[in-house]
């Protein structure tokens, strides 16, 4: 449904995610590992973009490419972008995030 789409620009998404990850400085981990919503109110790179009223615990357990519920919230053209930044949260330790986020910014042609 069109009204359910999160309509932020890539620049806006990056700014929100970068600030969130560098402030939270821990992975969002739940019962199954990295999670959109983790223990102690933590959120992953994609989880911070999902409004509470659109979040469903059934989203957990799959990256954005393989989760129809999460995919439905974003424009198809942004899925590779989001998958790429999701991998920073899921695949690297928080002390590596600043360098990885900078490389992501450059790769995607975003402003600082």
Question: Would you kindly provide a written description of the structure presented here, covering whatever features stand out?
Answer:
The chain has 112 residues and is mostly helical. The chain has one domain. It has a two-stranded antiparallel ribbon with strand order 1-2. A hairpin with a 2-residue loop joins strand 1 and strand 2. Helix 1 runs antiparallel to helix 4 and helix 3 runs antiparallel to helix 4. The longest helix has 15 residues. The radius of gyration is 13 Å and the shape is globular. The model has no long low-confidence stretch (mean pLDDT 93).
Element string (H = helix, E = strand): HEEHHH
The neighbouring-strand order within the major sheet is 1-2
Mean pLDDT: 93
Largest β sheet strand count, sense and barrel closure:
2 strands, antiparallel
What's the gist of this structure?
The protein is mostly helical and 112 residues long. The chain has helices at residues 10-24, 68-71, 79-91, 97-107; strands at residues 29-30, 33-34. The chain has one domain (6-107).
Layout: helices, strands, pairs:
Blueprint: H1 10-24, E1 29-30, E2 33-34, H2 68-71, H3 79-91, H4 97-107
Antiparallel strand pairs: 1-2
Helix pairs in contact: 1-4, 3-4
Note the main attributes of this structure.
single chain, 112 residues, mainly alpha, two-stranded antiparallel sheet, 4 helices, 38% helix, globular
């Amino acid at each position: 449904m069109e009204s359910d789409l999160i309509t932020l620009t890539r620049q806006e998404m990056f700014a929100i995610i970068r600030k969130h990850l560098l402030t939270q400085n821990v992975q969002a981990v739940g019962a199954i590992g990295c999670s959109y919503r983790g223990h102690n109110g933590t959120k992953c790179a994609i989880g911070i973009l999902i409004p509470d009223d659109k979040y469903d615990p059934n989203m957990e357990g799959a990256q954005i490419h393989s989760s129809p519920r999460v995919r439905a919230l974003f424009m198809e053209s942004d899925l590779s972008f989001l998958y790429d930044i999701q991998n920073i949260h899921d695949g690297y330790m928080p002390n590596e995030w600043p360098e990885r986020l900078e490389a992501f910014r450059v790769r995607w042609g975003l402003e600082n």
